[in-house]
Amino acid sequence: PSDPAMTTSPSKGSMKTKMASLSNQLDAQNSSIDSISSRMESMESIVGSGGTGLTEAIKEEVGISELKLRDLMQGMKEEMDHKFSLQVAENKRMQQHLSTVKRENQAMTKRLVALEDRVATLEKELGGDDEEDWE
Fold this sequence. Notes:
By secondary structure, the chain is mainly α. It contains 3 helices and no strands. The model is unreliable at 1-10 (pLDDT under 50).
């Protein structure tokens, strides 16, 4: 009596229901097997029945990836070369500007020294021993 297969239910449709359920499960499993089989056939068409086409498929994918990577690297190299040349031009411009500013500073220093000398000369001419008054 503990075996479910031996247990019978009072309703007459019980066996038919179980058979229908088993039939549905069998159909679902057959459908799943068919799906897996078609997927396997699809994979075999790509890689070959013994997997011999797998190497070629991988080589093809790697080749495509390698080309994309080379194109990307070439683009980055060109961009870096362009930025480098722009930086070189900017450095030259800044160096020229710095040289110009240094020359202007030297000229202004010479003028300042000349003006200080002239002020000292004028003070002497005017009798200006009163340097303490200026400070």
